[in-house]
């Protein structure tokens, strides 16, 4: 699903060292310098054009997500990555769920969805037993209001305070809207609330484009049925001359077959097997070999996860103590590498100051768009260099000498 300019892209998933015993999964995403939370906090002078461009990107990415029958359920500025060129990408799908109109699994969702400040009214106290894409639309509205003002719109301290802040702006909900609420305590609380008049958006958000406020009011409708879809919001007059619907990426809805496993009772081993099979989609050359383990007894070299841990352990050991050491040299390409030509003499690399290498190479490492999953395994054999042959001879001499010393000690 993650093939949209406004959704963070998974570049690589590292193959675990063991198919049956792994507990961690390492994913490599494209590098984004910051997030929308820090952009809003550091810039109190965003222009109207930037306001519009930010909202357009968010709605474009959300339209793509909803078209796949997926609800994000945790949209907030910290889950929107940002670059210096004002490009935004939606990330953190940890709470995302697939949504089928006739699927009973969508009925029993928890109330612990989305950070409270960006949580739709129907999620406060589990008002509705069935959620819709409108919950993400509300979150986008809260984020857009924060872009306009530089401050969170509804910074509630608890559920009741959150409802108070919402009704302070929109006024007391109509009896028809309150009657739709399934949670008895919440329904009683709103029913007994004193009548509050709504606050005009022009007063709440002064000096803001009126067309932007009209769209914001639609996004933040108390009744979820009154909120537009992401596609409808992109067709709002606010985006006249900006939106190019015909050029936006499209996607087919996710099939129920892909989530058939949720209807079965699965053990931990079953879940590991499903996850491992999914990871193998990023390792096409290993797919057949790993799906038929009887053809292979073990790996001939450490996995990408093992080497990833080894790199961090090495850096922590030496740099915490103020030492300057090069990171361990990679002998296999099971991790993303800097795309530079190797030097003729590997020993010269040890004379390089580790910290003087600069950020350009490290940035190049993570920005590489060609982290090929198929290259993480199946390395073709190559002829040994003179340095490798010399190193091998030295090792053999060292082993022979050690054997002779042990023999002398035993006699």
UniProtKB/TrEMBL annotation:
Which stretches are tagged as biased composition: Basic and acidic residues? 381-398
Q: What InterPro entries does this protein's entry cite?
A: Kinase-like_dom_sf (IPR011009), MAPK (IPR050117), Prot_kinase_dom (IPR000719)
Q: Does the keyword DNA-binding apply?
A: no
Catalytic activity annotation: L-threonyl-[protein] + ATP = O-phospho-L-threonyl-[protein] + ADP + H(+); L-seryl-[protein] + ATP = O-phospho-L-seryl-[protein] + ADP + H(+)
- Source species, domain of life: Eukaryota
EC class of the enzyme, as a word: transferase
Domain Protein kinase, first and last residues per copy = 1-239
* Keywords, sorted A to Z: ATP-binding, Nucleotide-binding, Phosphoprotein
Q: Which Pfam families match?
A: Pkinase
User: Is Transport among this UniProt entry's keywords?
Assistant: no
For this protein, the Enzyme Commission number is 2.7.11.24
Example of a GO MF term: ATP binding
| Residue ranges, annotated region (Disordered) | 381-411
PANTHER family listed in its UniProt record: MITOGEN-ACTIVATED PROTEIN KINASE (PTHR24055)
Supply the name of the protein.
mitogen-activated protein kinase
């Amino acid at each position: 699903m993650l093939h949209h300019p406004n959704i963070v892209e998974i570049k690589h998933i590292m193959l675990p060292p063991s198919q049956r015993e792994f507990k961690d999964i390492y994913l490599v995403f494209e590098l984004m310098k910051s997030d929308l939370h820090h952009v809003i906090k550091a810039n109190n002078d965003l222009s109207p054009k930037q306001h519009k461009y930010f909202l357009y990107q968010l709605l474009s990415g959300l339209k793509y997500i909803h078209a796949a029958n997926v609800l994000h359920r945790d949209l907030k500025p910290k889950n929107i990555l940002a670059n210096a060129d004002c490009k935004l990408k939606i990330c953190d799908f940890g709470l995302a769920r697939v949504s089928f109109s006739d699927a009973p699994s969508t009925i029993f969702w928890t109330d612990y969805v989305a950070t409270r400040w960006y949580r739709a009214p129907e999620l406060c106290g589990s008002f509705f037993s069935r959620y819709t894409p409108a919950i993400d639309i509300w979150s986008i509205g809260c984020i857009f209001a924060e872009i306009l003002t530089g401050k969170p719109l509804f910074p509630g301290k608890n559920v009741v305070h959150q409802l108070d802040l919402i009704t302070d702006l929109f006024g007391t909900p109509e009896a028809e809207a309150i009657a739709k609420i399934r949670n008895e305590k919440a329904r009683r609380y709103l029913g007994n609330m004193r009548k509050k008049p709504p606050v005009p958006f022009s007063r709440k958000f002064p000096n803001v484009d009126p067309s932007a406020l009209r769209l914001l009011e639609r996004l933040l409708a108390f009744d979820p049925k009154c909120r537009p879809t992401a596609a409808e919001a992109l067709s709002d007059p606010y985006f006249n001359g900006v939106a190019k619907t015909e050029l936006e990426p499209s996607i087919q809805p996710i099939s129920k077959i892909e989530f058939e496993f949720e209807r079965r009772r699965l053990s931990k081993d079953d879940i590991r097997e499903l996850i491992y099979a999914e990871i193998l989609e990023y390792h096409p050359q290993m797919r057949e070999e790993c799906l038929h383990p009887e053809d292979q007894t073990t790996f001939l070299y450490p996995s990408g996860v093992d080497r990833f841990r080894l790199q961090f352990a090495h850096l922590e050991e030496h740099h915490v103590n103020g030492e300057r050491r090069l990171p361990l040299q990679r002998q296999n390409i099971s991790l993303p590498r800097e795309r530079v030509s190797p030097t003729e003499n590997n020993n010269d690399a040890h004379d390089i100051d580790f910290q003087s290498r600069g950020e350009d190479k490290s940035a190049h490492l993570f920005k590489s768009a060609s982290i090929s999953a198929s290259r993480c395994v199946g390395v073709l054999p190559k002829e040994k260099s003179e340095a490798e042959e010399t190193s091998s001879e030295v090792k053999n001499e060292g082993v022979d000498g050690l054997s002779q010393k042990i023999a002398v000690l035993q006699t």
